[in-house]
Target: Restriction endonuclease type II NotI domain-containing protein
Amino acid sequence: MPLHFNPELIIGELLGEKAYKGIDPSSNNFECPFIKSRCTKRSTNLPNEPYPVCSIWRKGDGNADPKQDLIFVCPKRFYAVDFLTDVIDHCWPGEKPKNARFAPEVKMADFGNVDFVIADVQDDGEVGNFLSVELQAIDITGSVFKAYQALREGKDLDRSPTFGLNWDNVYKRYVTQLIRKGYFHHHWKSKIVAVIPDQVYKYITSRADFMRSTDVKNNPQINIIFMTYRLEIDPNHSGKYKPTLVTVEGTSHSSLQHAIMYKDAPLKEAFFAQIKKSLVRAVDLAGLIKLGEIPLDTGISEGNNDN
Model:
């Protein structure tokens, strides 16, 4: 079978550079231009070197629009812009901080961690007002590793790799964490800022109808702020893309929680229809197992970073 699928239609960027067949990320020792050091992304397929995929295309037909279809798969991609200054400019309540200091990777028992805290440090060294900041890209289901290999080898593929975007993981895990941390920030009379891809925010709002306000600085109800970016063609650098701020909206932890947990119940008749589809003749558990009607998967799987 002739090779005919272009891996450039799957992977958008490697180390911030537009992906092309024959690209060699090892030529500069896998240095990430956004963190000014060696790429930290890893794959079990590459035990001795980084896996420097920054973004992928949602559509592989060659007609994709980067504003809609090129999506961050590495949170370090946000470092191409000064998102911390954007947080101060667009989210800081009241007067801007007089002595803004940044604290990376703040961790605490029974809380977890946040990527950054922006604090207005007083003359006596005490923390005044503060905002927490979390970065979130999106994970991949399946793998684009074969496309990455093909790019480095300068070859086409015989077919597109099987992969998808793990929207449910963002919705179930990340949003749940935001609700919890938003609750804590509510009690601390502060806010947490979620820096996420614009496509991810649109997915969240398509599934959950929660209170949203653009008055993120002054609305006392808001303790969670979504600050979204998308990748667009960089007019100043040929063949490159740049993150562009799109949306700054806020909500409360209680509104987000209610929208996630309390959806309208489906019709009972529809549930009965699903029951009928699954009915079998066996009447006890042993009989169901014997017929192979019981899923025996424990739900436990080995995590990997082969995206």
Observations:
- Residues 213 and 271 are 36 Å apart (CA to CA).
